[in-house]
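Below is the record:
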Amino acid sequence: MVPKNARIRDVAREAGVSTATVSRALSNPDLLSEATREQVFAAIRSTGYRVNRAARNLRTRQAGAVLVLVPNLGNPFFSQILAGISESFGDRDTSVLIADTKDPASTGRRFVDYFLDSQIDGMICLDGGLPRDELQLLEDNDVAGRVVFACEWMQGVHLPSVRSDNVHGARLAVRHLYDLGHRKIAHITGPEDNVLTHARREGMLEERARLQLPTRDDWIIRGDFSLASGRVAGERILAMDDRPTAVFCASDQVAFGLMATLTGNGLRVPEDISVIGFDDIELSEYYVPALTTIRQDRHELGAKASSLLLERIEAGDAPASADQDPVMVDVELVVRASVAAPRN
């Protein structure tokens, strides 16, 4: 009869091995033969044995959890990055904690406290606007070596990061519009203090210069990656006497807000004005018209950030390399129905 609360000796008895062999199967399975591993895991299933995580973490001096900082959990862009992270750590039986940095004061705690309270082994930060004093606290307490930036990063901070090739993506967008015949191309940016805004604007300006496209200050409109900023930009474009024939938006959300405003005021997309986004979130394929955009492999961003963090966690107290080149993830142009050749 199987005990109600099976212990490791019950597994050992069921498998016909020693308790040391069961422990080895759980902590270092590669040290055992395949037959022995299968024998032990079959016994674990049959007895219903559950690993005591608290005891295991105490032995290994690890918390068995990582923290992910997200700048806005309401933004659907982050869903696939979080999925990539969750799947990567799920394979290692590591819990993933998520904190929204949109209103850090509401949590009542500093991010370094998660380390100091032994609640996490490492942190992935998707927010390039992390307060500098928070980062300084991480460095002062010698835990910054277990922090990895993903998607966004902080200028002048020498911590590893995993990024999409935002500059190349912006170049692809402008070049695609140019190849279709557009010469009057506007750009709606992200928030001014965001690293993605600067990278995408840099790529856009470089490609415009290379193609010798006309530059007009009123065709570069400040946004903030949101639907609302797309609406505001659309109202500005509608009020122009000389309108652009195409608009490159710094995010898909901006593009949706823009298209809704333009079509709501009698303009047709793409017949009257073409629109291209950046991100390729799930709605892009189903919006009407379906959005041409620059695809970020968001799942890969999360998976690569997880792999990089695991390397640093497993290095233990080994000093982290100060200057590490960012890990770049390729982007690609996804052509759909929101872009066409200009009518004249």
Q: What stands out?
A: The chain has three domains: 8-51, 62-164+298-329, 166-296. The chain has a mean pLDDT of 88. Residues 195-211 form the longest helix (17 residues).
